[in-house]
Every structure is written in C-alpha cells, then in structure tokens.
Backbone:
C-alpha cells in the first residue's frame, strides 16, 4: 500500500462510521454492551498507543528519554495544564535529556 | 441577529472549546510531517478524516511501521472512530438534517461538537452549539495543521528535538480525560501491558489492535463495571482539557 492509499482508506472509513450513526435507529445504543465496548475501545487503543510510542523502537522495547518525558506529561495533565503546553514540555524534556546524556 | 440567551451561551461555549482545541492542530501537523508524511498528506488527513484520535493513530503507526503497517493503521483509525458513530446516533434526532447537510453534520460529529451540544438545555441551543463548535474546530484544526506541517518541515530530525516523546504525550493527553472510573483505568493498564508484551512478537501496529481486544472482553462481560451501569446513558463525549477528536 502507498501512504496515499492508507490515508484515503483510513479517512473514508472514519467518515463512513460517522455517517452510519445518522442512518441507524437510535434503539441500538439503548443496549449497554455496544456503547460500553465503543467507549472502552477508545481507552484501550489510546493507552496502547501511549505504551508503544513511549517504549517501542521498531519491534524492540527500549527505555530512553521518552519515559521521563511521559512522566512529566502525566504530572502536567494531572495539574490540568493546557494540552499544547503538555506536548511542548514533553518534547523539551526528551530533547534536554538527549543533549545532556 | 437577535438570539435567545441559551443560544448565546451555546455560541460562547463553542468559541471556548473550539479555539482551545483548534490550537492542537499545530502538534498534529508537526508530528505528521516528522512521521514521514508530506504536507499535502497531512492536510488531507485533517480535512477528510477530521478526528484527532484517529489521525494521531495513523501517523503514530506509520512512524513506527512505515507503509507496511498500513492495514493496522487503517484498522486502528476505524476502531477509534467507532465512538463518533455513537455520537452521531445521539445527535441525529436533535439535528434532524436532510442530505446533503446531514453529510456535513456527520463529518463534524466529533467529541467536542457533541459535548458542547449535549451541555445545552434547549434543542435550538444544542443545534447552535453543535454547528458553531463544528465550524470553529474545522477551520481552526485545518489551518493549524497546515502551520504545524510547515513548521515540522523546517524542524527536521525528530528524536533530536523530542518530537517522538511529544507524540506519546499527545496520546496521553487524549486518554487522560477518559480515566475517571475504575473500568476504563483497568482497561487502559491492561491494554498498555498487552501492547508492550506483544511488540517484539508482532509487526508494528498489530500489538495496538490486539490491545483493542481488552476493551471488547471487558465491555461485553462488564468486568469492573458499575451495577446500575452508567453506560446505559448515551455516550459521554469528553471535551475537557485534552480531548481532541
């Protein structure tokens, strides 16, 4: 697959999922399980992406400057600091550690 | 144009949420370019996909696995997009639009537009909140994506500047507001463990998909769920603090 094909296929899939919601009867979300699975899916995928983005280098697991950077991000999020500041602080933490070490 | 107080409050909420969220587009644009996308590809993602969580997933997986991880990137984006379907189901009777405005409503059905709409008290204010939040974020997100992509092009080398750590922080920021009850926290921890353990064994992107099974299992069995399940009420979109989507 080319990157363009991936981008278009993924975009159309995400848009189609939004359209589907306007076409199906509302009674579907009256059952608790589908709604629960959909909301937990978001949590599971985002958490898995945090883990992989923090620990993986290709297919190996490596502990490096990304770990303390993520801890800084977690502390700032707990303090309700705005998202953009959290991102910049995480990047700066990792960059600083890489310069020093 | 004269508006009633509820609609005015809805517009004020739209600007507050919309402007804050639109600014995150800079980080998406910069990270997408450093993940290997060109400026056009980055902008098409924001224009056409227009769902922050799914967009970050695509670039995160492409950054680690390249184009070979395409199927996993598409599947992750789609799975993250399923919550938009739930928002759409909740918004459909409120908006009651006809085609082609229904298609535009669908495109703009994201965490923030749904959250602002649901926070209003009258039907008219809900519609106002939805459309205003939608247009503010759509314009802002795409504009700031372009700015971020151009910046990312200038900056160059990723890890030297810590942009890989920024990507991890971005995912954490999207996750954070969702961790308010025991069940999502358990799912988050288990999913992170599953993805980490499977990383050496499976191609890039696939461990993330395997972690999704945790959500399916816990969701169906309702382990760690509350008895009078709050999941029976419509889904709660999160727009606070970090939820771009």
Residues:
């Amino acid at each position: 697959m080319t990157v363009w094909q991936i981008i278009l296929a993924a975009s159309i899939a995400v848009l189609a999922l939004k359209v589907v919601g306007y076409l199906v009867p509302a009674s579907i979300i009256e059952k608790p399980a589908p709604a629960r699975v959909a909301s937990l899916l978001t949590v599971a995928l985002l958490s898995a992406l945090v883990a992989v983005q923090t620990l993986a280098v290709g297919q190996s697991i490596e502990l490096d400057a990304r770990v303390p950077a993520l801890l800084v991000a977690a502390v700032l999020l707990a303090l309700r600091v705005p998202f953009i500041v959290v991102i910049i602080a995480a990047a700066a933490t990792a960059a600083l550690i890489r310069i020093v070490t | 144009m004269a508006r009633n107080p509820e609609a005015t409050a809805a517009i004020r909420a739209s600007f507050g949420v919309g402007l804050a969220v639109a600014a995150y587009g800079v980080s998406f644009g910069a990270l997408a370019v450093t993940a290997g996308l060109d400026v056009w590809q980055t902008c098409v993602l924001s224009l056409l996909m227009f769902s922050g969580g799914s967009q970050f997933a695509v670039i995160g997986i492409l950054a680690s696995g390249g184009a070979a991880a395409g199927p996993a990137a598409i599947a992750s984006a789609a799975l993250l997009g399923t919550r938009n379907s739930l928002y759409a189901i909740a918004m459909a009777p409120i908006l009651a639009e006809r085609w082609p405005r229904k298609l535009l409503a669908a495109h703009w059905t994201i965490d923030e537009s749904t959250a602002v709409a649901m926070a209003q008290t009258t039907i008219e204010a809900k519609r106002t909140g939805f459309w205003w939040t939608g247009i503010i974020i759509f314009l802002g997100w795409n504009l700031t994506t372009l700015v971020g992509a151009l910046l990312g092009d200038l900056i160059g080398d990723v890890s030297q500047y810590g942009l890989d750590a920024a990507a991890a922080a971005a995912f954490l920021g999207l996750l954070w507001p969702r961790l308010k009850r025991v069940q999502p926290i358990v799912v988050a921890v288990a999913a992170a463990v599953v993805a980490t353990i499977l990383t050496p064994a499976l191609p890039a992107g696939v461990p993330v998909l395997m972690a999704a099974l945790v959500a399916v299992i816990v969701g169906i069995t309702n382990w760690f769920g509350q008895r009078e399940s709050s999941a029976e009420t419509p889904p709660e979109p999160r727009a606070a603090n970090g939820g771009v989507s």
The two ends of chain B are 31 Å apart (CA to CA). Residues 123-155 of chain B form the longest helix (33 residues).
